[in-house]
Design the sequence.
């Protein structure tokens, strides 16, 4: 067994990213979509950490960004859930297909 | 009256005062007082202008005022008048005053209606006194937007369609004008890198020929859209017929004149070489407009359409006169602007008043109105006679001056165009007398027409004011001629200098 | 020199009257409008008579030649340095004669109308229009500027329009008024272009200068003769086009179609406008420009042939008409044709100017007896309430004065001595005989036919059968009760005009009105004069035989001449031809296509551009669907696209 290299970790993050994208595009449920977005964000986090660890071991920039993103993701989740609750009150559902008034 | 800015301020302040009014009565009286005082001011302007000229003031533009408005672009607020502008201002004052009187019965959104009407007049006044190209354009735009609202809100028939068509076509025209103006502006370099919008300066500049070749058609066509140049005239019939009475009067009486004035002052005066280059095109298009407009009128059944198409034909004379590039013809063109403005305002007023009573404008449904509403019938007939060029009324004077001037061009093309234009007076007689015969004479068209009420005080006052103006031009044209012909001479000098 | 200050009052008085009556008459003094109009016109008449006296006998002559006098002139509209429309008054033999004719006939008609229009509720309007017409006509004849004459030309046209359409609730009157205006307007187009041509070459609009420049060897004359279009010189074009205007107003073939229909107007109007004054404006116009015309024989030939043809044509049609006013209308057209060809056979100056003098003479006498005929016909119509001959007959006993005066007028128009028509007609025949034998033949033939149809009319009205009043009429009165003859206000003018129809022939016209202003001695050959008179007498006898008593002979004759009679009765189908040209050709081939093109092509193009824009946005619209996930797909697709693109570009 070799050591776990950068490629392996990147592979995981790419997989995570596309799983997130796929979920975002196919799921109707807004909560699930939010979770998919979180997956995408976390794949980015993994990338940051991995690059920081393997390429710039002496620096902390990647870690900072990760923490930053986690914070923002938390705030974003709060806002998103607030929007979803409002949508639910309005449409009595959290199906994204129902909320298509913003057009034309 | 030598402070021209007052001419813009009075209607503007009246418009603001209208917004502050509490009820419809106040609104109407405020507008009436505002427009009446504006009429008084215009007459005073005429008098002081004539005095100044009589005292030997030879300056091209009198009562000039100038201040910097946006110095980074060299835009100035620069105003001044010559005889042509004075005549147009008088025309505007007459039409606005009578338009306010005619709109006395507007019931819905009265305040907004009068506000827009007055705002429109601000644009027209500003346009006619501007000597700075950009200010000119600014006021032109001020005069366009209210029309859209006036037609779309207070109109009749397919008003949304008409309002949209009118606004889009006029905006298209303005876009061409703006393009032409920018083209002129960026070629006014005097070597030191300074550009100018000042028309008086530009007229002395001899813009390079390729600039004129490009900018002249843009400007002329752009303004031409306002004057309903063929084939961009179709906004006029729909717009006029859908508009409420006062707006029709404004449209045909003032708005179409903005175009004619622009064609003359901004396009022809500033770019005489361009004018010569394209004069054949102008004459061709305007002759088509004259003849074809009058034949198209013959087929119309709606009174407003009749007058709208006949306006296309009559405004063709304005463009024909300008295109002929002789002094007499250009004088005739200006006279035709004034004359047609007053006459068509009277015509639309009469049609509006008849429509208000009978609720139809279809000639075959009308009939015998001369018997039931003699005053309005007479007004209609006078307007019609003026339109067909009866001597003693204004139309004759203007048309004959154009013919006389056009005939000075002795080659076959100009002769042919002139004779065709002359022939339109026959067709005009046909459609006017058809309309008069069917709508006013003959047996009474409908039982309830027997109980119609004749004109009220406001309608009488408006009609009489306009008829007085028509008579004043038609019976004693020399004052108008003396007022404008020195200034058409100046324009003509510029053109003939270009010919050398 | 004569005092010229008050001359302007002659046309101005009727103008002022017009404004006063039109503005205030109806509301404030409806009963006195007619009186006011009459009084002001009488004043005008007195002034004209004074002017005429002064001009002809005191101040007009210089060395035995009548000179034109410009009473005043004011630049009304200055086109350019030299060319301006002036408002002026010219006094020369023909204009002075015309103001007498106009004011005199107009006064007669005013007085007559006091009775004729007595019961009409709109008589204020009627009298105001009459004043307007009188003003315009006086302005026309006094014009010193060719454009001024054109202006008044249009004004008489519109007064005629208003008066023909006076009974505007009758569709036929409205149609007739419209027709009259449009036909003459069409002719005026020619007039206008003619003016433009003449003014362009002569460089002036002033009559005197224009005539001077086009009759003396100046640059103007050379230029206008040198310039040509379609092989005809500009001078001929200009004059023929001016004559076209005159032909329209004077109802010359083929522009005559409006005149018979114009009889829809009240009868006094027909007498004034469509018999005595306005319709001779064309003759006056040619006479006014006569020196120029005489420089252009081609144009004079046109005048001659058109005049001769019209006079014969109208005389033939007149024989078949049954509406008495239409008979008179055609006879007017025929007589004006007479005047026209008399001008056409004349030349400037001396003996050869006889035709000119004869035309003016005939204009003068014709005004008298034709006005009389119309006013007499008006009295008959007033009595019978019908225009149709078949409703009349046997009126001799019932209307003795009318009968007598009508007889005088008929004799006058038939050219029986010593009535006025004889003298003027004889001069015309002499002039025609000297110039062109064919025209002379036509003239004599026309004279014979004239005598026939006039007496056909006369006998049909006053003899023929017993008069039977009928119950209904087209004026809408309930039942018609035979009343006495017309009131005095109507009979007075008849009598005065009757006297004039006799006396007018004795005026020594040759001394007063000639082409060059010098007196012209006219010779009188008994043998020459006798021929036409005998022919006329034969015609009268023929009419007497046929129409004195009711008989079947006229019907049999008309049946025998079936085709020709029908054609003449239908006025040789000229109206139909016009209707075909205007309604079918112009409407369908020009008007409708113009409207169609406007609607479908020009407007269609605008609408199409709008539709194209709308369709385009309609196509693009679904992109903005509002579906979140669709946007996400676009986003990723875009990112991928750019990624691929950049990789492709960089690698």
Sequence:
């Amino acid at each position: 067994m070799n050591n776990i290299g950068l490629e392996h970790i990147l592979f995981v993050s790419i997989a995570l990213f596309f799983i997130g994208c796929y979920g975002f595009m196919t799921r109707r449920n807004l909560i699930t979509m939010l979770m998919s977005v979180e997956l995408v964000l976390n794949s980015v986090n993994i990338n940051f950490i991995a690059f920081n660890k393997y390429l710039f071991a002496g620096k902390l920039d990647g870690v900072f960004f990760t923490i930053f993103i986690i914070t923002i993701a938390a705030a974003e989740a709060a806002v998103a859930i607030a929007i979803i609750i409002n949508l639910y009150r309005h449409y009595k559902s959290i199906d994204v297909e129902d909320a298509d008034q913003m057009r034309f | 009256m030598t402070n021209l800015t007052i001419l813009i301020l009075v209607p503007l302040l009246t418009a603001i005062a209208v917004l502050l009014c509490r009820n419809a009565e106040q609104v109407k009286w405020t507008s009436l007082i505002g427009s009446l005082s504006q009429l008084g001011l215009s007459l005073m302007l005429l008098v002081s202008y004539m005095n100044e000229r009589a005292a030997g003031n030879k300056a091209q533009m009198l009562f000039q005022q100038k201040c910097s408005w946006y110095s980074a672009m060299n835009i100035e607020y620069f105003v001044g008048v010559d005889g042509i502008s004075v005549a147009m201002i008088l025309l505007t004052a007459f039409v606005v005053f009578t338009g306010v009187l005619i709109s006395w019965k507007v019931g819905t959104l009265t305040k907004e209606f009068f506000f827009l009407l007055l705002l429109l007049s601000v644009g027209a006044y500003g346009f006619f006194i501007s000597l700075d190209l950009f200010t000119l354009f600014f006021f032109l735009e001020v005069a366009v937007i209210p029309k859209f609202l006036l037609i779309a809100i207070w109109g009749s028939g397919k008003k949304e369609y008409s309002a949209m068509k009118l606004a889009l076509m006029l905006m298209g025209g303005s876009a061409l004008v703006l393009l032409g103006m920018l083209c002129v502006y960026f070629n006014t370099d005097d070597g030191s890198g300074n550009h100018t919008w000042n028309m008086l300066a530009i007229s002395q500049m001899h813009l390079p020929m390729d600039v004129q070749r490009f900018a002249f058609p843009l400007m002329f066509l752009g303004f031409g859209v306002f004057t309903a140049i063929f084939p961009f005239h179709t906004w006029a019939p729909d717009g006029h017929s859908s508009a409420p009475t006062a707006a029709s009067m404004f449209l045909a009486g003032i708005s179409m004149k903005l175009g004619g004035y622009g064609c003359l002052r901004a396009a022809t005066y500033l770019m005489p070489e361009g004018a010569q280059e394209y004069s054949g095109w102008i004459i061709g298009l305007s002759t088509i407009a004259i003849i074809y407009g009058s034949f198209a009128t013959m087929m119309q059944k709606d009174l407003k359409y009749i007058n709208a198409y006949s306006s296309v034909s009559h405004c063709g004379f304005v463009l024909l006169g300008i295109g002929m590039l002789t002094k007499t013809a250009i004088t005739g063109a200006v006279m035709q602007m004034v004359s047609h403005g007053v006459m068509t305002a009277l015509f639309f007023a009469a049609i509006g008043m008849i429509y208000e009573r009978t609720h139809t404008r279809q000639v075959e449904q009308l009939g015998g109105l001369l018997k039931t509403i003699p005053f309005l019938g007479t007004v209609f007939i006078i307007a019609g006679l003026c339109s067909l060029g009866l001597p003693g009324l204004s139309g004759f004077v203007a048309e004959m001056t154009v013919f006389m001037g056009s005939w000075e061009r002795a080659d076959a093309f100009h002769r042919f165009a002139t004779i065709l234009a002359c022939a339109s007076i026959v067709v005009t007689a046909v459609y006017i007398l058809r309309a008069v015969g069917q709508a006013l004479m003959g047996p009474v068209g409908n039982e309830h027409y027997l109980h119609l009420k004749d004109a009220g005080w406001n309608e009488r006052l408006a009609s009489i004011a306009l008829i007085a103006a028509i008579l004043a031009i038609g019976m004693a044209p020399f004052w108008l001629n003396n007022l404008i012909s020195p200034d058409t001479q100046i324009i003509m000098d510029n053109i003939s200098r270009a010919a050398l | 020199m004569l005092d010229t200050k008050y001359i302007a009052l002659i046309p101005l008085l009727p103008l002022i009257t017009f404004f006063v009556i039109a503005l205030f008459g109806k509301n404030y003094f409806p009963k006195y409008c007619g009186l006011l109009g009459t009084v002001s016109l009488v004043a005008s008449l007195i002034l004209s008579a004074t002017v005429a006296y002064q001009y002809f006998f005191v101040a007009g002559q210089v060395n035995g030649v009548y000179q034109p006098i410009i009473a005043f002139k004011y630049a009304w509209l200055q086109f350019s340095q030299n060319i301006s429309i002036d408002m002026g008054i010219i006094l020369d033999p023909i204009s002075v004669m015309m103001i007498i004719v106009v004011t005199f006939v107009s006064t007669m008609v005013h007085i007559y109308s006091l009775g004729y229009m007595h019961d009409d509720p709109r008589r204020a309007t009627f009298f105001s229009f009459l004043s307007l017409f009188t003003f315009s006509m006086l302005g026309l004849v006094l014009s010193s500027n060719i454009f001024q004459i054109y202006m008044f030309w249009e004004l008489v046209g519109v007064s005629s329009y208003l008066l023909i359409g006076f009974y505007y609730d009758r569709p036929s009157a409205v149609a007739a008024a419209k027709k009259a205006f449009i036909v003459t307007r069409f002719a005026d187009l020619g007039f206008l272009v003619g003016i433009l041509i003449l003014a362009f070459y002569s460089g002036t609009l002033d009559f005197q200068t224009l005539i001077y420049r086009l009759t003396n060897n100046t640059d103007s004359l050379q230029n206008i003769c040198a310039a040509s279009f379609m092989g005809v010189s500009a001078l001929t074009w200009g004059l023929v086009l001016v004559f076209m205007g005159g032909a329209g107003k004077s109802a010359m073939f083929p522009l005559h179609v409006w005149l018979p229909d114009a009889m829809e107007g009240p009868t006094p109007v027909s007498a004034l406008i469509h018999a005595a004054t306005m319709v001779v404006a064309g003759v006056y116009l040619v006479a006014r420009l006569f020196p120029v015309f005489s420089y252009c024989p081609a144009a004079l030939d046109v005048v001659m042939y058109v005049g001769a043809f019209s006079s014969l044509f109208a005389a033939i049609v007149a024989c078949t008409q049954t509406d008495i006013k239409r008979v008179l209308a055609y006879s007017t057209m025929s007589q004006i044709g007479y005047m026209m060809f008399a001008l056409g056979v004349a030349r400037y100056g001396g003996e050869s100017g006889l035709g000119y003098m004869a035309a003016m003479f005939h204009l003068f006498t014709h005004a008298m007896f034709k006005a009389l005929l119309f006013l007499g016909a008006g009295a008959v119509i007033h009595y019978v309430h019908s225009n149709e001959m078949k409703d009349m007959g046997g009126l001799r006993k019932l209307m003795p004065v009318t009968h007598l005066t009508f007889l005088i007028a008929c004799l006058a128009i038939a050219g029986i001595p010593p009535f006025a028509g004889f003298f003027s007609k004889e001069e015309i025949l002499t002039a025609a005989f000297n110039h062109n034998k064919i025209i002379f033949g036509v003239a004599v033939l026309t004279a014979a036919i004239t005598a026939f149809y006039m007496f056909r009319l006369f006998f049909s009205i006053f003899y023929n059968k017993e008069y039977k009043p009928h119950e209904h009429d087209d004026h809408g009165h309930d039942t018609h009760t035979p009343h006495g003859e017309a009131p005095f206000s109507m009979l007075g003018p008849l009598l005065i005009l009757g006297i004039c129809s006799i006396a007018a022939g004795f005026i020594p016209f040759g001394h007063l009105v000639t082409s060059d202003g010098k007196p012209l001695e006219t010779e009188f050959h008994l043998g020459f004069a006798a021929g036409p008179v005998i022919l006329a007498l034969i015609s009268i006898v023929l009419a007497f035989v046929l129409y004195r008593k009711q008989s079947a002979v006229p019907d049999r004759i008309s049946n025998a001449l079936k085709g020709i009679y029908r054609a003449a009765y239908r006025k040789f189908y000229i109206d139909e031809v016009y209707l075909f040209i205007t309604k079918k050709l112009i409407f369908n081939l020009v008007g409708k296509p113009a409207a169609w093109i406007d609607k479908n092509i020009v407007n269609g193009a605008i609408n199409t551009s709008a539709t194209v824009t709308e369709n385009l946005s309609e196509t693009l619209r679904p992109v903005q669907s509002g579906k979140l996930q669709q946007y996400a797909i676009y986003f990723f697709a875009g990112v991928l696209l750019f990624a691929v693109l950049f990789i492709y570009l960089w690698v």
Chains A and B do not touch (no CB pair under 8 Å).
